[in-house]
Structure to design on (200 residues):
């Protein structure tokens, strides 16, 4: 049985995949991860009787913000992330690695994992009672902002990813899942992200 911590703290794993591509790991250069799961708000209609009617509004998009310290414009190859501009524009295959502004908007999947087994990556199968884990997965989203800042004398990037709550077929684009280490259960492997498969 896994020893479940009092809190998830200090470390997590971050993986990003384009459609048809393998997961690229970004935890090594990422300092913070902020997840804003879309609000499910409502409006209030006041009636002449003095009552209130609730009118539900569609769920807001989910936004994930990373603060990171890349040394490159993007990730030319491999599964270790070294930069972010190629997630925002068309990736280059040339040397030197040049990424120019364009109108391309590619879909990505972003997964964040907290786990008692530090060897696991966000896309891995995680079995309980061998490990406890919490995983957030967002798919069919876009990188909407990549902003570098040298204000404090160190180059830091603020990177924003955004996805709607559902796709055009009303299927979910976001899932949050966990295993507590106390029973026989499994977080399934995240299969290769494609135009028809988000996570399994």
């Amino acid at each position: 049985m896994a020893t479940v911590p009092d809190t998830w703290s200090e470390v997590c794993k971050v993986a990003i995949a384009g459609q048809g591509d393998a997961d690229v790991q970004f935890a090594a250069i990422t300092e913070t991860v902020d997840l804003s799961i879309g609000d499910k708000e409502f409006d209030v209609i006041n009636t002449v009787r003095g009552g209130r009617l609730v009118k539900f509004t569609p769920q807001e998009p989910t936004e994930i913000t990373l603060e990171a310290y890349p040394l490159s414009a993007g990730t030319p190859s491999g599964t270790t992330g070294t930069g972010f501009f190629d997630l925002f524009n068309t990736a280059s295959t040339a040397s030197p690695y040049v990424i120019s502004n364009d109108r391309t908007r590619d879909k990505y999947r972003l997964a964040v994992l907290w786990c008692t087994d530090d060897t696991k990556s966000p896309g891995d199968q995680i079995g309980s009672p061998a490990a406890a884990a919490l995983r957030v997965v967002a798919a069919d989203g876009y990188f909407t902002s990549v902003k570098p800042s040298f204000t404090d004398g160190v180059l830091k990037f603020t990177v924003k990813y955004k996805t709607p709550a559902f796709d055009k077929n009303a299927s979910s684009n976001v899932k949050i899942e966990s295993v507590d280490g106390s029973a026989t259960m499994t977080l399934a492997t995240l299969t290769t992200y494609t135009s028809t498969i988000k996570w399994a």
